[in-house]
Design a protein that fits this description.
about 210 residues, alpha/beta, three-stranded antiparallel sheet, 3 helices, 13 strands
Length: about 210
C-alpha cells in the first residue's frame, strides 16, 4: 500500500498502521460519499441486499455503506527536500512578477489564492517560484486540472523546470502510476484517490489558478 491513497477492501494488503474510514456517511437519511464527496441522493442506489452505494465514483471500484475505505498516513520522515529545484531561464514581466509574488506570499502565509488572468498569460510560470518555495520546505504538491489535455501539456513543462524532482502525471489513460512522488500533475478526478497527502494543490484552468494549502 502506498501512503496517502484511499483503498477499498479488494486492494487491501496486510501492513501495519492502516486507518479504517467509513465509505458512506448518513446512508439512511442524507448520504455522503467519503471518497468523492457526492451528496446527491439521485447518484446513490441500492444493492439487492439494500446496502446503499455511490454511483458517482463507481468506476473507481464500488463502495457501499457496508464497506470501509483504508488509508496509510504519510510519515513526516518520508518528506523530500530540494535545495534549488527550479531551473527556469525565462524572464517574468512586471505584471507576471506581481502574480509570482502573490503566490509566494500565499504559500508562506498558508492562505488560499485565486490567480486570475487570461489564457496564455503565463500563470504556470508565475507559480514556479511558489512551487520552488514549497519543494524547499518539503511540501507535497499537486497541479490539478479538470482537463486531460492540460495535464498532458503541463507535465513536460514542469519536468523541464524542475528536472530533479520526482513527478507523476495521472489521468484516466495515463501509463504512469503513483509511486509516492512529491510532485504530481493530475486531473481533478484522480484526486479522489488521495486523502491528506498534498500540502499544496493548484487547481489550474484556462483563466484562473486556485491555490489551496493544508
Amino acid at each position: 500500500m502506498l501512503k496517502g491513497l484511499l483503498y477499498i477492501s479488494s486492494d487491501l494488503k496486510k501492513v501495519k498502521g492502516v486507518e479504517v474510514l467509513p465509505s458512506i456517511l448518513n446512508a439512511d437519511k442524507d448520504p455522503f460519499c467519503f471518497r468523492c464527496g457526492n451528496n446527491e441522493k439521485i447518484r446513490f442506489a441500492r444493492l439487492p441486499n439494500k446496502a446503499l452505494y455511490c454511483r458517482n465514483c463507481l468506476k473507481m471500484g464500488r463502495i457501499s455503506c457496508n464497506d470501509n475505505l483504508y488509508y496509510l498516513k504519510p510519515d513526516e520522515q518520508d518528506r523530500m527536500y530540494f535545495e534549488n529545484p527550479l531551473e527556469f531561464e525565462g524572464m517574468l514581466s512586471h505584471a507576471q512578477q506581481g502574480g509570482a509574488e502573490a503566490v509566494l506570499k500565499a504559500i508562506r502565509t498558508k492562505k488560499p489564492l485565486l490567480l486570475w488572468a487570461v489564457a496564455g498569460s503565463g500563470k504556470t510560470e508565475m507559480m514556479f517560484p511558489g512551487i520552488e518555495e514549497g519543494l524547499k520546505k518539503g511540501l507535497r504538491i499537486c497541479l490539478a486540472s479538470p482537463r486531460v489535455d492540460v495535464c498532458i501539456e503541463l507535465a513536460p513543462r514542469l519536468k523541464e523546470a524542475f528536472p530533479d524532482v520526482p513527478q507523476a502525471c495521472l489521468y484516466g489513460s495515463s501509463n504512469q502510476t503513483f509511486a509516492g512522488e512529491p510532485f504530481v500533475v493530475a486531473t481533478t478526478h484522480q484526486l479522489m484517490r488521495f486523502y491528506h497527502y498534498f500540502d499544496l494543490i493548484c487547481d489550474n484552468t484556462s483563466i484562473n489558478a486556485f491555490l489551496s494549502l493544508f
